[in-house]
Amino acid sequence: MTPRQVARAFSGLLLALLVAVLSSTIVSNALPTILADLDGSQSQYTWVVTATLLASTASTPIWGKLSDLFSKKLLYQLSIVIFTAGSVLGGISQSMPELIAFRAVQGLGMGGLQALIQVVIAAMISPRDRGRYSGYIGAVFALATVSGPLLGGLIVDSPLGWRWCFWITVPVAVLAFIVLGRTLHLPVLKQQVKIDWLGATLLVGGVSLLLIWISLAGGSFGWWSWSTLLYVLGGVATLALAVFVESRVSDPVVPLRLFRGRTFTLAVIGSLSVGTAMFGGAVFLGQYYQLARGYSPTHAGLMTIPLMLGLFLSSTVAGQVISRTGRTKPWMIGGAVLLVASLFLLSTIDHGTNLVLMGGYLALLGLGVGALMQNLVLVVQNTVAMKDMGSSSSVVTFFRTLGGSAGVSALGALLAAKVSDHVASALAALGIHGGTGGSGGSLNLGALPEPIQSIVRAAYGDSIGSVFFAGGIIAVATLVAVLFIKEVPLRRSIDLTTEEPAATPVPGANVSGVVSTPSGRPIAGAALTLTDPAGHQVARAVTGEDGHYELAAPPNSGYVLIASAGRFQPSATALAVNGQTVRRDVTMTGAGGLSGVVRSRAGHPVGGATLVLTDYRGEVVASVVTGGDGWYHVDDLPGGTYTVTVAAAGHRPSATQLSTVDGEESAHDVELDSAAELTGVVRSGRLGVPVPEARVSLVDPAGEVVAVTTTDAEGRYRFTDVPEGDYTLVTSGFAPVSAPLAVSAGHAVSRDVELGATA
């Protein structure tokens, strides 16, 4: 894909990602209001978030595996459709179980949106350039996280109500679907489809059992009880069975062989920890500001701006610098240090903490997460081949979201227990003894008496520090993992250049040819990749100045020859090698450009001129309007012969023919001759009324008729595009009348005519 095509497709990907992230952040500030309206409890508050993260976790590796088998574009659009359906259904929920179920549907789509964006980018952009794009992804995360709580708060406080928090993302999702349908064009390699459904089911089932145990323990049953034993043993046994299945199937949903790589394993550990700290710590901020500090949803959203600004700055700056230097580890170490430090600082807050100081802590947290989140995926993509790009990217995202799911459940249970203890202690101090409702207590504080409201608010404020403290301990694992990651400079190629051992070339079995444009011009620097039926790279070469390439391949097998180069469209061709040299020339169509300046004969730029390109069939290929400096530019123009027509007010139209070359930028300046406009009215000399259908001719000094027109019903005539010079205006209809006149270039001339009586 050309750089312009990549930019267009990337905009669609960012729109879809914006919708996915916005759906989580826009609801976070609305949750206290939603739970009060639907009579929800603290444990249900946790599961509204956990259901989405768990469904996203479950579907992430499946989406990644499907992307190695099917069209990435169709899969991304399918994930948008599923996500949109969940959003619409979530807005019509009438109870907490319904809301949790529909949030799970949202999570299925969100898993695809978050996992596939990394896979699609990896298929379009090399790791060295990918750092810059990862920075843009981080910026979108920051934008959605900044605007989400604010937008959610405004919606909740407005007459629209909390249900529009789910519906407002639907138009953006539809727009992303349309943009991707028109802009994303990636080659699809057909492969045999094998999905490890059993492994995925066991993996998600084991995790779900452990998360359900964490959520219910201490409330529905004791931490040390037969129920705990059953949940824990069931979860561990299911996960052990999942590992066994993954080690035996041919196409596992989580390829265990990837964990043999040190970088991959450490990145997974780091992602698991950062997900726990990021999701688990940040998801309770809205609850803290609204329940503990008594702020409105809108005000609570404003209080999280320091966190999002830090995330925005860190991810954007890190992405730009990494693309130029190729180094990721310094940024990840710095981000991990800031993450740990900020979480421990946030562990000191209570219901009376200075909000300016807390804003500083949140800014540090944003800086740390921004430098870590996307770069952990980037270092993994830099060390795996293209055939494993979908699986590896989705596995890292899988464990990050898994960490978030576990973090929300575990830290939510911790918060509920701490709140229950603080409330019980405060009530006991007032001489009131009895149960506090545990984690199942209602979050509708408005239904409580004023003294009890104050106690509950203080309990939430004093308990939130424990959540961040636990997150800080977990984040230490991220710091340790990042420290031991071996830094490998980011490569500039999309795929690894090393060949698979099983695909050792056999001398004498060669594939060769010339890569050229449709006009026959050789293309230098084109990359040719030969893959076997399993998608493994067999050989790779780059064309020379003459466009020639040569690849060695084992005989008696079928292959796919993939060609890619700069601004040219990639191509894929199937071929068979039978032990003899195979000649296969490749023709690549490309998109060049045309630019230039439109000037007058006096050398002045002509702004507002319309330039139209037509092909040999007369079909309009492109049309642009010049800027104030007369400059124009036409993008994505295939090589060929075109007619360039330029028209501008006060100038004579110009038409010239030119030829362009595939993939190259062409220049063409245009000079326009100035022209004038001649108008007037023909009237009867005796009656003074306009004369319709009178014939008006413009004659030059040589007696040649330059132009002829007929007056309209009001007696008006008009000549445009009149060159500078002296003319005679001849009018007939009554007795003919002729009158000399002079026309100056660039000026409008008006001349009325009176006709005599009819002869």
TrEMBL record:
One GO CC annotation: plasma membrane
Topological category with respect to the lipid bilayer: Multi-pass membrane protein
Subcellular location: Cell membrane
Major facilitator superfamily (MFS) profile domain ranges (all copies): 9-489
Organism in which the protein naturally occurs: Amycolatopsis sacchari
Gene Ontology biological process terms in this record: carbohydrate metabolic process
Coiled-coil zones: none
Lineage, uppermost ranks: Bacteria, Bacillati, Actinomycetota, Actinomycetes, Pseudonocardiales
InterPro entries in the cross-refs: CarboxyPept-like_regulatory, Ig-like_fold, MFS, MFS_dom, MFS_trans_sf
Protein name as annotated: Drug resistance transporter, EmrB/QacA subfamily
Keyword Membrane: yes
Record keywords, A-Z: Cell membrane, Membrane, Transmembrane, Transmembrane helix, Transport
GO MF entries: transmembrane transporter activity
